[in-house]
Amino acid sequence: MLAFGHSHPNAMKNLPLNPRKVPRQARSRATCDAILAAAARILERQGDEALNTNRVAEVAGVSIGSLYQYYPTKEAILAELIRAMRQQMHDDMAAAARVAAGSGLEQEVDALVAATLRHHLRNPELAYALEIVEERLPLDAETAALKQGMRTLVVDMLERNGITDAPAIAFDLIAIGHGLADAAIAAGERDFDGLHRRIRRAVLGYLGRPRL
């Protein structure tokens, strides 16, 4: 779910996309969790056109006033869903990199590809819907930070395995992996093993270590 380099309408650039406040008490955290879960459910089942703050509050079982205490706009709710999904993707990749570190290039590639693909397939309909939404939200600075964090994980893997020009190669590998995953999932593919083999083959082939 990586929509890089989009332009955004001026009206979108001026929308508040951050929560009004951070929930600190258990009850307020539960309210925010319910709001985000409701928005995700609506987005996944009915699409962005069906999502508005009144509908989210209704599905979440909270008052519209409670919703507005935390989220000033529908777009702020969507942005928070995107942030959560991005963070989960980075955390999945970081955990896989830690476990596989030192096991050799092919095994480390396998681990990172599997972690990325599990992220994409955990909830593919929601991920795809958020990718479409992300194209119109001005989150470019946050996207750049995410890209850098992911690239650092891949650079570290490449350097551990003696590969030179690691930053440029990491950029290409991320583009290959996410491009293949996004295209396949958008086309309705859900076969983890088949997609994993294809992405792994493309990545290792790029690195000059083809493996079927």
From TrEMBL:
One Pfam family matching this protein = TetR_C_15
List the PROSITE patterns hit by this protein, alphabetically.
HTH_TETR_2 (PS50977)
Sorted alphabetically, which InterPro entries does this protein's record hold? Homeodomain-like_sf, HTH-type_TetR-like_transc_reg, HTH_TetR, TetR_C_15
Example GO molecular function: transcription cis-regulatory region binding
- Cite the HTH tetR-type domain residue spans from the record: 29-89
Disordered: annotated span: 1-23
Record's keyword terms, sorted = DNA-binding, Transcription, Transcription regulation
Which residues form the DNA-binding region?
A: 52-71
The protein here is known as: Transcriptional regulator, TetR family
Source species: Citreimonas salinaria
